[in-house]
Design brief:
By secondary structure, the protein is an alpha+beta fold. It has 14 helices and 34 strands. Helix 7 runs parallel beside helix 9, helix 8 runs antiparallel to helix 9 and helix 11 packs across helix 12. The structure holds beta-D-glucopyranose. Beta-D-glucopyranose binds next to loops.
């Protein structure tokens, strides 16, 4: 019979404890190997990661944001064995036994529990990049250590009878075999190749021998392997390596795509990658470079058919890492473009807002994607076992500057927001500034991921039981207009099921919310035309399509809130530059709804900015605070640091005419 550990016996005599009952009845019963381990199962929530999220929620000054973070905190994320010391536990986090023991306590009676575990320490790891170079060299000695000091102890622990009641889903070595397909001409990958093959074979063998462990090989993403010229050799390589194991193809349960990447699950406004627009296939666009696979639903279906052709069974399951591929927020398109130009059509329609599909490091604008779930609603051809969160949101992909460390991590310029990368067709990386080393907590990115989540995160606690998209308010008209404010009214939404309020947009910028059918936009510039739209929303944050726009022009001259000082500096290279701006409120009253404008003289353009909402019309650039956020108001004497990456054509003089809400600022 199951022996109750002494510690638990003592507890049962002291208080009424329900946990040991759960443990006794089911937790330790051996889990048979099933086809889809996620079916009917819950997934393990990493308490260490959840504590980082709670820390962020505690520091968030916006209560609505904090509530959303607390909803994210309850989501399952993978545990990364990213170096040998991660097995026992190190300064970066608790060890494997801590997680397995916690998983036992999380397991509810009658519901299997899947622990997502990442096997990530191959000799010569990350051969085509630098940010996650590992600890083991691509040598015979490195491989020997991989086997005896890394895989063997992990396998030994997973095989303990104590853990036989858990389901362990192992993500096998992100990026490794895919690198051998596309980057084999790179010297480091050439050297690493035999060790990747042998290391993956060894991991598959050892882990497959444990009945409750499931092997999912990392299969990159659609923007990496989607082209047939990459996809077919990849499926062949996966089969080739699997065939070298003792169990052959049966050592593989499935494949996981989009690990730690931000490629969308679906491109809702580009549903047909074969579409031909005015005689030009949309896949020939600069963005898709002839790739048929626009998203992970395309890629999983494509790959599955190739795997089956290679001899893998039809039951082979697919996982998609959806932790950061949501692409919501104000920049998300809401309809298919009407342009007849293929590039404009694609660029205006795609929800993936990256500069290039190869950009992988902390991409600006990304959001949390679908929540982890088993057998999600998806086309049958994709054979999805589950959506999983392999990359824990909030953990960096790599440092944006060179940071000394003893983790074998190096400075990869793909993580540097000022870098124009030849790997990205000479475009800026689009990486977030201020990033710490890979795997380290990156709070400002986490805030963005939560803000840009799609589906939106319901901070209210219980997920909505309906899928209401409230109808658009019928009529919107401007009311009173003064020199710096516009009063708007509209006919309330007729969809009275679940409408709790309205979001008001000034152009594309969220200007505020209202629970009634009126709103006054303040802090505007005198004698300026503005356009407003309104969206109805329900308690879960679902929003309607935008109402018709109304335009209103403010009157007279500005009555600005007070003085301002601006310091501008820029780093310029070839045709790009990074600008940093410090805006100080030199008045004695708070500067609310501030609106900074300035003018470029040499045709410069703003590409991507931070710590403000940026827009540009002709030579005039405008920056405002993020509505409802910490930077919307500047206290007397306070300074806000903001900046942007820009492009220029050779001459890059500093802009002029800095003013806030129409009042000129002094330059410092
Ligand atoms: C890093 C790991 C980290 C993982 C999850 C990888 O890029 O190299 O150290 O554990 O991301 O955040």
């Amino acid at each position: 019979m199951f022996r109750i550990p002494k510690r638990l016996l003592a507890a049962t005599t002291a208080v009424v404890v329900t946990l040991p009952l759960t443990l006794m009845s089911t937790a330790n019963a051996a889990e048979p190997h099933v086809d889809n381990p996620y079916a009917g199962a819950a997934q393990y929530v990493n308490p260490t990661w959840a504590a980082s999220v709670e820390g962020a929620a505690t520091r968030a000054s916006d209560p609505a944001l904090a509530a959303k973070m607390r909803a994210v905190k309850t989501q399952p994320t993978a545990v990364w064995m990213d170096r040998i010391s991660a097995i026992a536990g190190n300064a970066a986090g608790n060890g494997l036994r801590f997680h397995l023991d916690n998983a036992l306590t999380q397991k509810q009676s009658g519901t299997p529990l899947v622990v997502n575990l990442v096997i990530y320490d191959l000799p010569g790891r990350d051969c085509y990049a630098l940010a996650s170079n590992g600890e083991l060299p691509a040598t015979a000695a490195g491989l020997a250590r991989y086997k005896t000091e890394y895989i063997d102890p992990i396998a030994a622990m997973l095989a303990e009878p104590k853990y036989q009641g858990l389901r362990i889903a192992a993500t096998i070595e992100p990026d490794s075999l895919p690198n051998l397909i596309t980057n084999i001409s790179h010297p480091e990958c050439q050297v690493a190749a035999p060790f990747y093959r042998e290391g993956v074979k060894y991991a598959l063998d050892k882990l497959h021998a444990i009945p409750n462990v499931y092997n999912y090989i990392d299969a990159a993403h659609s923007g990496w392997l989607g082209w047939d010229s990459n996809a077919a050799p990849a499926a062949k390589l996966f089969a080739e390596v699997a065939r070298t194991t003792q169990a052959g193809l049966a050592s593989v349960d499935g494949f996981v795509t989009n690990t730690a990447n931000t490629t969308p699950l679906a491109e809702p406004y580009l549903p047909n990658s074969s579409l031909v627009l005015n005689g030009t296939p949309i896949r020939s666009s600069t963005y898709y470079e002839w790739n048929f696979d626009f998203d992970e639903l395309d890629w999983t279906a494509h790959l599955h058919s190739l795997l089956v052709a290679e001899g893998f069974p039809a039951s082979t399951g697919m996982l998609v890492d959806t932790s950061r591929n949501g692409w919501g927020g104000a920049a998300r398109p809401t309809a298919t473009s009407t342009s007849t130009n293929v590039n404009t059509y694609v660029d205006e329609s795609r929800v993936d807002r990256r500069n290039h599909r190869g950009a992988w490091c902390n991409p600006l604008g990304a959001g949390i994607g679908e929540r982890p779930q088993s057998t999600p609603a998806a086309p049958a051809a994709s054979h999805l076992d589950a959506f999983v969160w392999i990359k824990p949101p909030g953990e960096s992909d790599g440092a944006s500057t060179d940071i000394a460390n003893d983790e074998g991590k190096r400075f990869d310029r793909m993580c540097d927001p000022t870098f124009v990368s030849p790997k990205l067709g000479n475009r800026l990386t689009g990486a977030s500034p201020g990033a710490p080393l890979s795997g380290h907590w990156f709070e400002s990115q986490f805030v963005e991921l939560v803000r840009n989540a799609f589906p939106v995160i319901n901070g209210g606690g219980n997920p909505p039981t309906d899928t209401i998209a409230p109808s658009v308010p019928a009529a919107l008209q401007a009311g009173a207009i003064t020199n710096t404010s516009v009063a708007l009214t509209w006919t309330p939404s007729t969809d009275n099921v679940g409408v709790t309020g309205y979001d008001i947009y000034r152009g594309t910028t969220l200007a505020g919310s209202s629970s009634t059918a009126s709103f006054t936009a303040t802090g505007l510039t005198a004698s300026t035309a503005y356009s407003f739209t309104v969206r109805a929303k329900d308690a879960a944050g679902n929003v309607s399509a935008a109402s018709a726009a109304v335009s209103a022009t403010t009157t007279g001259t500005s009555n600005p809130p007070g003085g301002c000082k601006v310091t501008y500096s820029a780093n310029s290279w070839n045709t790009g530059f990074t600008a940093s701006i410090k805006l100080t409120n030199t008045s004695t009253t708070p500067l609310t709804n501030w609106r900074l404008t300035f003018a470029f003289a040499n045709g410069q353009t703003v590409q991507q900015g931070w710590n403000a909402v940026w827009s540009q019309a002709g030579s005039t650039v405008t920056a405002t605070g993020n509505a409802g956020s910490w930077n919307e108001t500047l206290a007397p004497g306070a300074t806000l640091d903001m900046g942007f990456n820009g492009a220029h054509t050779g001459t890059n003089n500093a802009p002029t005419a800095f003013s806030v809400s129409g009042q000129p600022c002094t330059l410092g």
